Amino acid sequence: QDCANVVMETLENHRNLEAGYTSTRSASGTESVDLSDVVLSGLAADGGLYVPRFPIPKLSPGQWRRLTHLSFQERAVRILEHWLPATSVPRTKLSKMVDVAYSTFQHPAVAPVATLSSCPLPGQRRLFLQELFWGPTASFKDLSLQLMPQLLRHFAGGKDYALVVATSGDTGSAALHGFGSHTDYPVIVFYPEHGVSRSQRQQMTSLASRFPRCRAIGVDGDFDFCQSSVKSMFADVEWHRELREDTGVHLNAANSINWMRLLPQVIHHTSAYLDLVQHGHVAMGDPVDLCIPTGNFGNAMAAIYAKRMGVPFGHIHIASNANNVLEEFIATGVYNVRDRSLVRTISPAIDILVSSNVERLLHLVAQESGDDACIDWARHAFSDLRSQQCVTAPAQVMHRIR
What predicted TM-score, i.e. pTM, was given to this entire model? Predict the structure, then answer.
C-alpha cells in the first residue's frame, strides 16, 4: 500500500508540473510558461519574476526520512526531481549535472553543518552553522552557479547565450567561474565600483581575465542601480530582437531573479535539516529556526520554499546590516526606500535596498490568502515601489509573512 501511494503521489506531482510557470505580475495568473522558456528567458516579459503555477511539491515525513542517510548529491537529485519534469531533464542527465557541479567543492559533504553550542545553558538554544564557503569562489552562490550553467546549456539546444549579472560582490565571481567552467557563454558582470571589497574586486577581475568571453565592469553607482539596469535590459523587447538578429545571441540573467538560479538553493536548506537528523541533534519533525543574512532575499526565499516542501523549519529570521529596509518592512508593513541612500558597510554582499525576491514572497502569500484584493496588490507592488519608492502592504499579507 505504501509503495502504491508513493507511485500515485509521483504521478500526481508530474501532472502538477505540467501547469508550468507564470509571472508575479500576471493579470490573471492563468498564462502558462513552460520550464524551458523560464530557464532561457530569465525575467518575465512584463518585468515580473517567474513562479510556479503548480502547488509547491510537498514530501511526507517518511519521504524526508528516506533522504537522511543520502549524500548531498543524492539529496539534490531527489529534491530537484520534484521540481523538474523527467521529460525535460532525465534523471541520468540530472545526476551527471549534479555530480559535476559539486565535484568542485573542497568538502566531501559540500555544505556541512558545524556545531556551535551543543550543550547550552538552561534557557539557551543549541546553535549550528551551515558552512556554505567550500565552493570554488568561497561564496554560497557557488551552490547554484555550478549547476545553473549546465541546466541552461541543456535547455539552450545549441543556441548562444550571453549572461548579464548585477552583483554586490559574491554573485559576480560565482557566475564567472560557473559559466566560464561549464559553458562558453559570454558573461558580463556589473558591480558597484566603490561598493565591493578589495578581495571581491580582485577575484572578479582575475576570473574575467581567465575566461576569454567574460568581463567584470565597475559601475559608478550602487547595487540597486546595477540591478535595475539589468532589469531594464530585459524590459527592452526591441533591443532584444535586434541583439538576436545582429549577433545570434540571446540574453539571460544569472542573478536570483532567474528561477533556475534560485531553485538549487532549496537543496542546501533541506540538506542542513537532514544532517541535523542524521547526527542525532534533532528528531525528524522537530522544528528548527533559521537565521539567514539577506540582501536580494533569494536565499531566504529558497528557505521558504523548502519549508513549504515540508521541511519543519520554525521561524526564518532575516539578518541585515545598516541597510535594514527588510527589517522595517516586516515590522511595519511599509517598504520605503524614498529619500534613503545605500550605506556602504563591511558586508557589501547585503548592501541592498530593493530586494527583488521579496516580489516572489508577496506573490506567494497573496495567492495563499485567496483574497482578490491582496493578489491584485501583490501584482503591482514592485512596479509601484519602483515608481513611488514606497508601498504599504495589506494587513492580511503581513500577517502571513510574520
Answer: 0.93
